[in-house]
Design brief:
Length: 224
């Protein structure tokens, strides 16, 4: 597979282009009903993801086990689509905090084809959508991240870490990189061998979640 090179001109231009696409989608949302717009966009992203999975299975012969939605961003994507369609504050909390993972996946993509491959298009659209969905719901649904959501997202994250570890042992996969580090240059390379990089990453993720939540906490305190 002709892969996207990390931090190449193509990678950086892709980030810029998809950022502009979702900024544009934010602006035109004002022309429509916010609820209907969110639902339609969620359905479109769902269709794109289904097409990607179909191509990966039928054209590239990836097994059903390899396509299970057990990477953090796939889990976040499912929650984001449901939350956008049905306006669930509970799922918004998870999407907001899990979107940190989507951000790092965009910065450090693993084994992503180059721009002319549909899998590349789907990767960037779905990962940017996770970030977009959380902020769309903050702005248009008036949802606000809270400490309870932070703690719940951390608990659910670790549930999926344990689940993915079990699934990886059964099927030889590597969801959430719980069995081996990704085969690319990433921050995980600096966190030691297994299982230390998992523990360190878990702690860093909790810290980043709190940093992400902190502006909302400070704003709420000043409003009281």
């Amino acid at each position: 597979m002709d892969e996207l090179i990390l931090f190449s001109t193509e990678h950086l231009i892709s980030i810029l282009i998809y950022s502009l696409i979702f900024i544009f989608l934010s602006f035109i949302s004002n022309l429509f009903s916010k609820r209907i717009y969110a639902s339609v966009l969620g359905i479109v992203i769902l269709i794109i993801k289904i097409i990607e999975l179909f191509i990966r299975h039928t054209v590239y012969s990836e097994s059903i086990y390899q396509l299970l939605p057990l990477h953090l961003c796939n889990i976040a994507l499912i929650f984001a689509i449901i939350s956008m369609i049905f306006k669930f504050n509970f799922l918004f909390q998870l999407v907001f905090y899990f979107s940190i993972g989507a951000f790092f996946a965009i910065i450090f993509p693993e084994n992503i084809p180059r721009f002319y491959d549909f899998r590349n298009i789907s990767f960037f659209l779905t990962h940017f959508f996770i970030i977009f969905a959380s902020w769309y719901e903050i702005i248009n649904f008036k949802f606000k991240p809270n400490l309870k959501g932070l703690l719940l997202s951390f608990v659910i994250l670790n549930f999926f870490i344990l689940l993915s570890f079990k699934v990886n042992n059964l099927f030889g996969t590597n969801f959430m990189f719980t069995n081996i580090k990704p085969n690319l240059s990433s921050p995980l390379n600096y966190f030691g061998p297994w299982p230390y990089y998992i523990i360190i990453s878990d702690c860093i993720f909790l810290f980043l979640e709190y940093i992400y939540y902190l502006p909302f906490k400070l704003y709420k305190s000043r409003s009281l």
